[in-house]
Predict the structure.
Amino acid sequence: MTTALITGATAGIGAAFARRLAAQGHNLVLVARDTARLREQATELHDRHGIEAEVLRADLSTDGGIEAVEKRLADRTHPIDLLVNNAGFGNKGRYLEVSMADELTMLKVHCEAVLRLTSAAVTGMRERGRGGVVNVASVAAFVPRGTYGASKSWVVQFTQGAARDLTGSGVRLMALCPGLVRTEFHERAGMGTDNIPNWMWLDADKLVASALTDLTRGKTVSIPDPRYKALMGLVKVVPRGLLGDVTSRAGRTYGPR
């Protein structure tokens, strides 16, 4: 039986990955900051699907938290077959309205943690000749939207480059770029959602099912919805200056309150 490690596992996309993978018979290592929620989730998934669900409390905004997950990923006696780097958050405010400490914390979680955990996982996977990594980015990676978008763009570029370097190793890497998903993310970021059209919202469980299919097919970037695929197609042809104006207005309309 294979084992998947999921960061940010207790809510939103991370919880959807946990549900889907448990239903498919994978054992799990669930990583988040809230021990009580982790234990409740692990018990529920074990009771429902008969899988083993290990709990690992870690704060990926700290070196100690990253090191704890690195250590688990490097454990050759209990190898990880699939890593889902999902932990992330948004900051309320535009550039210069967000404290430098919060900006640097975002880069720690979205970039440094992804780099270090991917490297820790892939080292063993390459030795075994199999494995997969899903790095959760965002469609914000493709538009000019400050530190959040820049950090997610880094995730996409890093994942594509690493996947190319690992060609033929049996290890698959994929950046997942969802659009808007109803999760705790928006509430935590102080983001108002009442103004956002219903058609823009994605279902987390359907998104995860599509993402895992894309990983199996060997894609290195997954935009798992035709609506957002169409929007990102338009993004490629819109002049960058105009795109910046549009995304700035959209951020004021739909962004953090």
Observations:
- Residues 3-254 form a domain with the Rossmann fold fold (CATH 3.40.50.720).
